[in-house]
Design a protein that fits this description.
By secondary structure, this protein is mainly α. It is built from two helices and no strands. The chain has a domain of 26 residues.
């Protein structure tokens, strides 16, 4: 059985994830992540 990682996140730490990474963390598809961003339920920043 795979061991799940437990990561403690400091609330003051700024994190940057790709859409693919967020979809993996939330176990949802990429389109759902975009929908959460469009509804302002997730913050996003366009890089590049």
């Amino acid at each position: 059985m795979p061991q799940e990682s437990t990561r403690i996140i400091d609330k003051n730490e700024d994190l940057v994830y790709t859409i693919k990474e967020v979809s993996g963390l939330l176990k949802v598809n990429k389109n759902y992540v975009y929908a959460l961003i469009n509804k302002s339920l997730l913050r996003s920043t366009k890089l590049g």
